[in-house]
Every structure is written in C-alpha cells, then in structure tokens.
Amino acid sequence: MLGGTTAPAGPFLDVKKGVEHYDAMVWMKTKGISTGWKVSGGYEYRPLNAVNRDAMAAFLYRLAGSPKVSLPKASPFRDVKPGQEHYTAIIWAYQKGITTGWPDGTFRPTQSIKRDAMAAFLYRFAGEPKTSAASGSCFRDVSSNQQFAKEMCWMKNQGISTGWSDGTYRPLQSVKRDAMAAFLHRYDAKF
Questions:
Q1: Rg of the chain over all Cα atoms, to the nearest angstrom
Q2: pTM score
C-alpha cells in the first residue's frame, strides 16, 4: 500500500494501470527514454505536464541510443550553456539538424514544445522521409500554408498521431508528456 491506495503496477507512482497511454509511459521508462522525477517512494512521470524543448531533445537523444557527441567549444545557442541539464542532447539535436532554434540565436530550453514543432523534430529525427500526403489535408485545423504542415501530415499518415476525435491536431497546444510517450512509442514501432 502507498499512502492508503494501491501502488501502481508500473514504474511511475503517478501512472496507474488503465490510464490513457499507460503502456507507452511504461515503455518510456523501460527503454530509458524517460527517467521521470525522483520523489519519496519512487518516481513520477507527470503525464499531464507539458514537455519542455530540452526534454524533447533528451527523449530523441535517448531514443537514438545516447550516441557519442562531439561538444563544441561554444554553444550554438545563447541560452544553452555547457553543464546545463540536457546540454549534450540539445547539441546532438542541433548537430543532427533536428532543431535549428530561433532566428535570435536561442533554443528556449525550458519553454514547452508545441505540437507543430514536436512534429518537425520527429520528422527530422526520422531523416525527413518522403511523404505522399498533401500538406494541410490531414487535419481540420492544419492548412497547407501553415508552418510544419507537411510534418504534421506525415505524423498522421504514419499513424504516429491520430489527432482528436473532432478531426483536429491542435498544432499550437503544448505537447503533454503522456501524448509524447504515445508518439514516441508509435514511432519506435514503425521505424
């Protein structure tokens, strides 16, 4: 018993068996893609928290097997410094072309990543595969002239994202950690 309730069956105290994306969140821990937060009595995943941009880089870096990274003498981003949490993963993502950051030279590591930008990161991580879908024809709220339309449609065509039951993708909403687990789990099953 944990605090008067039944302990979770999985590796995270705040992820109970039967919740949406349960298997994907357990997979994240099992594969070493997410460690979660250490708390008294174990670890929490915090499934409804937004994914920050630095964590997105870390998830992809770990999914790639945490490859060796040749760290530069100076960071390519003025707001990312050596020794900072997820520094190696951010540099790796930059070197691999997964992220370019903003035109002002920032990466904005602790800003939550929006669903459209997450699609772009994952599409680039996949090697920018050819896609036959017309950009903007996949979700009701994704138009062909929208930034990252091709990447969002690629996610749908690959079955990585199903969107919401109303046919929307909600590109400017922050990605929640439970949904991120589902996206990465589906991606890993396909590629």
A1: 17
A2: 0.91
Q: Identify the residue whose tokens are 């790639």.
A: 64
Residue 5, beta-bridge partner list:
2
- Within 10 Å of residue 45's Cβ, how many Cβ atoms? 25
Q: Are 172 and 146 in contact (CB under 8 A)?
A: no
Amino acid found at 12: F
Enumerate the H helices of the chain as residue ranges: 22-30, 53-63, 87-95, 115-125, 149-157, 177-190
The percentage of residues in the chain with a pLDDT greater than 70, rounded to a whole number, is 93
Q: Report residue 53 as tokens.
A: 């941009």
Question: From CA 148, how far away is CA 143, in angstroms rounded?
Answer: 10
Alpha-carbon gap, residue 130 to 28, rounded angstroms? 27
Q: What's the pLDDT score for residue 135?
A: 60
